[in-house]
Design brief:
This is Nucleoside diphosphate kinase. It catalyses: a 2'-deoxyribonucleoside 5'-diphosphate + ATP = a 2'-deoxyribonucleoside 5'-triphosphate + ADP; a ribonucleoside 5'-diphosphate + ATP = a ribonucleoside 5'-triphosphate + ADP. Its cofactor is Mg(2+). Keywords: ATP-binding, Kinase, Nucleotide-binding, Transferase. It comes from Herrania umbratica. This protein has a 4-stranded antiparallel beta sheet. It contains 9 helices and 4 strands. The protein is globular and about 55 Å long. The protein has 169 residues and is of the alpha+beta class. Bound molecules: adenosine-5'-diphosphate. Adenosine-5'-diphosphate binds next to loops.
């Protein structure tokens, strides 16, 4: 999109350098919580350098699980997926940063943990698609939608980490 300065002057050289800050919704699923992987998983995103803007332990009601996974309603595994996600507490996280959506998906790895690369969360910590320990939004649009779905207003924090100038020039 073309952007204008406050004086209405078009600055094309600035347009190219403006990088979009994205939001993504990441969730440790009930198996990750039960297996004691919460700290390990949060730590991977922290160490990467993304900014945490929301965090809570939460028992997901059935209606919310159904809304979150509504695109998969026709799948044979949908009922067991809803049972799985509501079977115990999840850890909800909102992360922010330039390129965070695609990068989080890379850190998470392929849906099937047996296909996921070593070094990824699923590649290192899981063995089956039906117990793949973590969710991450698949597009910037879904990142916004899912963050708004799982967090109420007032549950997200706007802050500036002290390390910010050491992460991006
Ligand atoms: P991802 O979570 O990697 O974005 P999908 O959007 O395709 O993957 O699926 C959402 C979730 O549904 C998966 O993470 C997994 O928990 C579950 N799921 C997907 N495919 C299957 C399957 N074949 N059997 C059981 N569960 C599945």
């Amino acid at each position: 999109h073309a952007r204008q300065s406050t004086h209405g002057i078009f600055l094309p050289h600035l347009v190219a350098s403006l990088e979009q800050v994205e939001q993504t919704y990441v969730m440790v699923k009930p198996d990750g919580v039960q297996r004691g992987l919460v700290g390990e998983i949060i730590s991977r995103f922290e160490r990467k350098g993304f900014k945490l803007t929301g965090l809570k332990l939460f028992q997901c009601p059935k209606e919310l699980a159904e809304e979150h996974y509504k695109d998969l309603k026709a799948k044979a595994f949908y009922p067991s997926l809803i049972d799985y996600i509501t079977s115990g507490p999840v850890v909800c996280m909102a992360w922010e940063g330039v390129g965070v959506v695609a990068s989080a998906r890379k850190l998470i790895g392929s849906t099937d943990p047996l296909q996921a690369e070593p070094g990824t969360i699923r590649g290192d910590l899981a063995v089956q698609t039906g117990r793949n320990v973590i969710h991450g939004s698949d597009s910037p649009e879904n990142g916004k939608r899912e963050t708004a779905l799982w967090f109420k207003e007032g549950e997200l924090c706007e802050w500036t980490p002290v390390q910010a100038p050491w992460l991006r020039e």
